[in-house]
Amino acid sequence: MSIELYAGNALSIPVGATLRETIEGNEEFRFAAINIARIYRENLAEMVEHLRACDRAASQIEFAFRGEAKKYQSYNSFGVDYRFDGKSFYGALDLDDVESAKKFEPLVVGAKRRAWRILSDKLGILKIMSVKRRTEFEKQLESGDLPEIDEDTILQILLGLAGDAASMATEAAKEVFDYLRPRKSDNATPYATNADYFRVGLKVILTYAVERGWGNVGGWRFNYNREKYFIAIDNTFHILDGKGILRDGETPLVAALKKAENGVGETDYFKFKCFKNGNIHLAMKRPDLVKQLNGLATGDYVLGSDQI
After folding, report:
1. What is the pLDDT of residues 44-70, one digit of tens each?
2. Is the model more confident about 29 or about 278?
3. Residues 17, 149: one domain?
4. 164 & 188 share domain
5. Does 303 fall in a domain?
6. Please, which pLDDT band fits residue 92 given cuts at 50, 70 and 90?
7. Torsion-angle region of residue 195: left (phi > 0), alpha (psi -120 to 50) or beta?
8. What sign does the dihedral 127-133-137-139 (CA atoms) show?
9. pLDDT value at position 127?
10. Phi, psi values for residue 114, rounded to 5°
11. Which terminus of the chain, N or C, has less C-beta within 10 A?
12. Which of 236, 191, 235 is nearest to 209 (CA)?
């Protein structure tokens, strides 16, 4: 996968057994990690200092008009209302007060959350994870319980990805297999026959998966709770085909669905048709990749029966 962490430093690092050695011996990557951590740390501190300077200036104006007797009032007529990452915090009057300094914590936490979200996209972390792992990781992002942005942490995250890449890809593939195959008494796939166990075939019906765009304008989209499964499906087929991890932006399947005004479309790996009841008929164009998927999950490199 290609990883770009710092302007002028684009790295091309293969996913495989030699990834760890490639990273550990790659001074270009280490230089990029050092720079991105330094730029983040220094400029975030500068952002906070500029906001504090704005607060100080607003306080001086307030004191000039209201007098020192009003110094500790709760409202500043000239204070600025800051908003970052969905959090709002208002200009403090007493900048010497320890408690007032804490008002910038939402900025620091929000910046860290955004930084790790961008890094996770750059490193392909979310795309290679199973839906279960991705959900847990996103919860961690939302909670703000995240490690600091520094060189060592960035390297450790990527090295951890290197060590787990194969197992995470296999885990994601098995999860995709489980989502695509019909099973007896599975409410998500009511069109299955009475057999207890299936391999994935070339055509499947997936329910409660799609819906029209807002106001029925434009194309379709995947249901919010289902989209992550189709991202995993798309990424798994790319990995099985030796194309590597889909990192930035929407996957081709998600993008194609949004452009399909009549609910019909295709990508390199899939053809699909959407229905008003929320179902999507998904046809796999590469039997060889479907066999690989079945093989990873069951050990049998065969095609299953179609659901459609």
Report:
1. 989 888 888 888 888 788 888 877 655
2. 278
3. yes
4. no
5. no
6. low
7. beta
8. positive
9. 67
10. -65, -40
11. C
12. 191
